[in-house]
TrEMBL record:
The protein, known as: Inorganic pyrophosphatase
Organism: Coccidioides posadasii RMSCC 3488
Enzyme Commission number: 3.6.1.1
MF terms (GO), sorted A to Z: inorganic diphosphate phosphatase activity; magnesium ion binding
Keyword field contains Transferase: no
InterPro entries per UniProt: Pyrophosphatase (IPR008162), Pyrophosphatase_sf (IPR036649)
Length: 458
């Protein structure tokens, strides 16, 4: 049996599973590069059909021939009343590749159980609708076009070679916990191969040679309240809970939010220089590593080193300092292949950026402070702008480590930087206590209290 005959048989098998679907529902539309399926049951049959067909028929094999063959049918009737043409089989079966167009496809929910697939004009497509049927004398078989369109759009996501490097790869970093969480003594040291390293200075900023994937250190897991941060002043910069007036700090729950909205952390080897006023925000840096909000679906853990890609950045003006908030996605997240820039976040995670803006604006109000302000009227800048900020802060860190900027009270001890006068040997690292796996200390019930802020969007 020829490849095309097998394709036709598979199409018949799939379509005959929809007995109540009238043949007129499969009429083609003149609307162009869209395929609209007005039957949810036909939509359910399509993936089954294409999964079995994608390795049997390739778009390159769809060259028409003059010899007629049996066409596709629905309940024994020719599909759409078209004439059929025989398709020449490929001359070299080893040359067949899975169909994978260079353009991306998208889907959107439509009324009346309608599913719409779109592609670029450079690819053939079929629109299945009850409106505007085309003349029957088509030179290319409708079944062949169905085969080409659906096997391409469903089975071939856009290639993302830069996201494959860490998929499924276990982290090379681990966490050494010292002391009891929710106490003044708690410290989380980052280790590589069992040896403590500095999350501020030792972990590389970039995770691949192309510098498209970055390392992020998670300080605060999503939905938690303890304000944990890389300690700039202590040896090897462990993560600890922030303290104010001798008390542990917790972020308040501003209705309807609970704790932090994202996995919150920092980029290693970055620094927001307090000696430099940014030309656009008109404010100096906040003297911290660059803050990061990771919007993926999995809740991280303190000390986790995630591989992420940058999507955008907000500029918070906190006590007359520029406090950048970089928006990123874990490269292993299911949405990573769909989120490429900040507008994609609104498309696939509607409302998240508005909630992020609100959260940063009001989160200090329960502690008696005024609401925070933003540069750029609260606008979240795109990926290109965000990467420029990352590069600026990486350059500032370089100046810090080479003595071109004053370190103040910061520790720049490290274990990996060649030629650094602050590089330490194993004897000093041995002074760090052994790891402990202690249960968190209980926290005050007031940490779970909700605060209702007038003017907050719900």
């Amino acid at each position: 049996m020829s490849l095309f005959s097998r394709a036709v048989n598979l199409l018949e098998c799939s379509l005959t599973k929809v007995p109540s679907l009238p043949p007129s529902a499969l009429a083609r539309s003149r609307t162009g590069n869209q395929a609209v399926l007005r039957s949810s049951r036909l939509c359910q049959a399509i993936p089954c059909f294409t999964a079995r067909l994608s390795t049997a028929c390739h778009p390159a094999a769809l060259a028409p021939s003059s010899a007629p063959v049996r066409g596709a049918s629905l309940h024994g009737k020719p599909l759409l009343g078209t004439t059929t043409t025989k398709l020449a089989p490929p001359t070299n079966s080893h040359a067949i590749r899975p169909p994978c167009p260079s353009s991306s496809f998208s889907s959107a929910a439509l009324p009346s159980h309608t599913l719409r697939f779109t592609s670029s004009p450079s690819h053939h497509s079929v629109s299945l609708s009850a409106h505007h049927p085309r003349p029957a004398a088509s030179t290319v078989n409708r079944a062949a076009l169905l085969t080409r369109h659906f096997s391409s759009s469903i089975h071939c996501p856009s290639p993302q070679s830069d996201l494959t490097m860490s998929a499924g790869k276990p982290s090379e970093y681990t966490v050494r916990k010292v002391g009891q969480p929710n106490t003044l003594d708690y410290r989380a040291y980052i280790e590589k191969d069992g040896v403590p390293v500095s999350p501020f200075h030792d972990i590389p900023l970039y995770a691949n040679e192309q510098k498209t994937i970055l390392n992020m250190v998670v300080e605060i897991p999503r939905w938690t309240n303890a304000k944990l941060e890389i300690c700039k002043e202590e040896f090897l910069n462990p993560i600890k809970q922030d303290v104010k007036k001798g008390k542990l700090r917790y972020v308040r729950n501003c209705f309807p939010h609970k704790g932090y909205l994202w996995n919150y952390g920092a980029f290693p080897r970055t620094w927001e220089d307090p000696n430099v006023v940014h030309p656009e925000t008109k404010a100096k840096g906040d003297n911290d590593p660059l803050d990061v909000c990771e919007v993926g679906e999995l809740v991280g853990y303190t000390g986790q080193v995630k591989q992420v890609k940058v999507l955008g950045v907000m500029a918070l003006l906190d006590e007359e300092e520029t406090d950048w908030k970089v928006i990123v996605i874990d490269v292993n997240d299911p949405l990573a292949n769909k989120l490429h820039d900040i507008e994609d976040v609104e498309r696939h995670l509607p409302g998240l950026m508005r909630a992020t803006n609100e959260w940063f604006r009001i989160y200090k109000i329960p502690d008696g402070k005024p609401e925070n302000q933003f540069a750029f009227s609260g606008e979240c800048k795109n990926k290109k702008y965000a990467m420029e900020i990352v590069h600026e802060c990486a350059d500032a860190w370089d100046r810090l480590m080479t003595g071109k900027s004053q370190r103040g009270g910061m520790s720049i001890a490290n274990t990996t930087i060649e030629g650094s006068p602050d590089r330490v040997d194993a004897s000093k690292i041995e002074s760090i206590p052994a790891g402990q796996d202690l249960a968190p200390a209980p926290i005050e019930g007031s940490v779970d209290k909700w605060f209702f802020i007038s003017g907050a969007a719900v």
